[in-house]
UniProtKB/TrEMBL annotation:
GO cellular component terms attached to this protein's record: cytosol; plasma membrane
EC class of the enzyme, as a word: transferase
Similarity field: Belongs to the UPP synthase family.
GO biological process: polyprenol biosynthetic process
Gene3D superfamilies: Decaprenyl diphosphate synthase-like
Name of the protein in question: Isoprenyl transferase
The keyword Transferase appears for this protein: yes
Organism encoding this protein: Cellulomonas terrae
Superkingdom: Bacteria
Subunit structure: Homodimer.
Magnesium as UniProt keyword: yes
Active site: residue positions: 31, 79 (proton acceptor)
Top-level taxonomy: Bacteria, Bacillati, Actinomycetota, Actinomycetes, Micrococcales
Note describing how the cofactor binds: Binds 2 magnesium ions per subunit.
Length: 260
């Protein structure tokens, strides 16, 4: 049986929100690590290291508030353009975080998944991702998808390439290619659409993260850099989400109002 994560040191508890108003899937862009470090006279890598605790605390908060899926943007396909030293640090850091934290997350009932491309990714990182996946595959408290060497456009291009091969081989008819079929070729085809897209550090863009899955996501942007974020920020974002009117392109007139 999974054990609950420890409560937040402040004593604050998750807000009581009806299940139907809690986002099922939250995508997180963990932005601002480098700026957090530089503001303190530290190297950028110190910010990434400090962000580890934030991710764990947000996962704990997701469990407590009832979020079922969390997807974390750990390393993008564009991050290879950073300095070689920072890339090496991030590769080793992602590997070591999985090694250090997998038993703890397993004890909480977290299922760890991986989305992203294999090419260029360190074999040691792939090994740790696969080990964490295997260790936690029976868990169901919350699914944490680590997006490592991931890009939204890359994911869509890879899916299109796979479908093209199927069409060329005669296994799929071109006229049968629709949104439902296309989604089956994404990195994690059983991952539900993103309901809440959360980004830290004041930037207001999606940065090529889950652009297929987040087509109708509610966007919430935090001013705090990622190392200053904890589960309470997630809870406030969930409360904001619960107040949003999600229409998916539809609209209903309300008394005294007209719809555009």
């Amino acid at each position: 049986m999974p054990v609950p994560p420890p409560p937040h040191p402040s004593g604050e508890r998750a807000p009581a929100i009806p299940k139907e108003f809690v986002p099922r899937h939250v995508a997180v862009v963990m932005d601002g690590n480098g700026r957090w470090a530089n503001a303190r006279g530290l190297p950028r890598t110190a910010g990434h290291a400090a962000g580890e605790a934030s991710l764990l605390d947000v996962v704990a908060g997701a469990i407590e508030v009832g979020v079922e899926y969390v997807s974390a943007y750990a390393f993008s396909t564009e991050n290879w353009s950073r300095s070689p030293d920072e890339v090496r640090f991030l590769m080793g850091f992602n590997r070591d975080v999985l090694r250090r934290r997998r038993d703890l997350m397993n004890s909480w009932g977290v299922r760890v998944r991986w989305a992203g491309r294999r090419p260029r990714l360190w074999r040691s990182v792939i090994a740790e991702l696969e080990t964490a996946e295997e260790l936690t595959r029976q868990n169901s408290t919350v699914t944490l998808t680590m997006c490592v060497n991931y890009g939204g456009r890359a994911e869509i291009a890879d899916a299109a390439q796979a479908i093209a091969r199927e069409v060329a081989a005669g296994r799929v008819k071109p006229e049968k290619v629709n949104e439902k079929l296309f989604a089956r070729y994404l990195d994690e085809p059983d991952l539900p659409d993103v309901d809440l897209f959360l980004r830290s550090s004041g930037e207001q863009r999606t940065s090529n993260f889950m652009i297929w899955q987040a087509a109708y996501a509610e966007l919430v942007f935090l001013d705090e850099p990622w190392p200053d974020v904890d589960r309470r920020h997630l809870w406030r974002a969930v409360e904001t989400y619960a107040q949003r009117d999600r229409r998916y392109g539809g609209a209903v007139d309300k008394p005294g109002q007209t719809s555009a």
